[in-house]
Amino acid sequence: MSDTIPEVDPTCDDPTEFTVSEQPMLKQLVAMGWDFVRGDLDYPAKTFRNSFSETILLEPLRAAFRRLNLDSGGNEWLNDLTIDRAVRELTRRDGRGLVEINRAFMERLVSGVRVAVAE
Question: Does 10 score more than 70 pLDDT?
Answer without folding.
Answer: no
